[in-house]
């Protein structure tokens, strides 16, 4: 039943997509900041797949500017189809996963601290699913923007694995890869769980209860 959706599509068989990108709204429903570049000088970007991107985005926007989060948005990454739609991504025929983009001020919050929230906020051992959400679009993923981000991603993963093992979990399946493309999701997905859009909305993002020891992950972010 889930065979096609839990197997990465061959690039040659991926849907063709389109040339025209989806245009997200300009302003963040909660933070009031711009969703699209250019972002403020000195800011950094984290692109993370944690399962359903509605709940993942809410986890990060709730940190707010005082904790260093400038803006958040949801989109699609890690696949082959240009400018995919949500329905296409859900078909399993684009290769993308649902991603939250976090634009942050590294003077206030480090990439390692962002990843601590990432690791603790979902179960990174489930392969092509997250809880009851099944499919390649729900896989755990970190798409890095620099070698420093790659090193931090791998160091935090390696630090977290023994903690998960002691807690009875399996091997981490998180994809760690350079970002090729990020495609913004449709307007209605942006800040979907905000009070302005869906005050009673639900998305079952949940962690393992294990704490990621980020202290080992000093990799040049400073």
TrEMBL record:
Belongs to the MsrA Met sulfoxide reductase family. This is Peptide methionine sulfoxide reductase MsrA. Keywords: Oxidoreductase. GO terms for molecular function: peptide-methionine (S)-S-oxide reductase activity. The keyword Secreted does not apply. The gene is msrA. Residues 48-203 form the Peptide methionine sulphoxide reductase MsrA domain. It is an enzyme of class 1 (oxidoreductase). NCBIfam families: msrA (TIGR00401). It catalyses: [thioredoxin]-disulfide + L-methionine + H2O = L-methionine (S)-S-oxide + [thioredoxin]-dithiol; L-methionyl-[protein] + [thioredoxin]-disulfide + H2O = L-methionyl-(S)-S-oxide-[protein] + [thioredoxin]-dithiol. It comes from the Bacteria. GO terms for cellular component: cytoplasm. Its EC number is 1.8.4.11. The active site is at 52. Has an important function as a repair enzyme for proteins that have been inactivated by oxidation. Catalyzes the reversible oxidation-reduction of methionine sulfoxide in proteins to methionine. It comes from Nocardiopsis alba.
């Amino acid at each position: 039943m889930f065979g096609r959706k839990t197997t990465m599509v061959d690039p040659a068989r991926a849907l063709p997509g389109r040339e025209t990108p989806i245009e997200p709204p300009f302003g963040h429903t909660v933070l009031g900041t711009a969703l699209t570049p250019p972002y403020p000088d000195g800011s950094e970007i984290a692109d993370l797949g944690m399962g359903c991107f509605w709940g993942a985005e809410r986890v990060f926007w709730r940190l707010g500017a005082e904790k260093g989060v400038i803006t958040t948005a949801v989109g699609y990454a890690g696949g082959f189809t240009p400018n995919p739609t949500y329905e296409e991504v859900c078909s399993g025929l684009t290769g993308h996963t649902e991603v939250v983009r976090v634009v942050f001020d590294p003077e206030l919050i480090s990439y390692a601290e962002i990843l601590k929230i990432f690791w603790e906020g979902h179960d990174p051992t489930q392969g092509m699913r997250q809880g009851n959400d099944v499919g390649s679009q729900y896989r755990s993923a970190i798409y890095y923007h620099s070698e420093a981000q790659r090193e931090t991603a791998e160091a935090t993963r390696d630090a977290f694995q023994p903690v998960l093992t002691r807690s009875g979990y399996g091997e981490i399946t998180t994809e760690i890869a350079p970002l090729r493309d990020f495609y913004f999701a449709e307007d209605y997905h942006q800040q979907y769980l905000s009070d302005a859009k869906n005050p009673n909305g639900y998305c079952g993002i949940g962690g393992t209860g294990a704490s990621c020891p980020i202290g080992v992950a000093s990799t040049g972010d400073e």
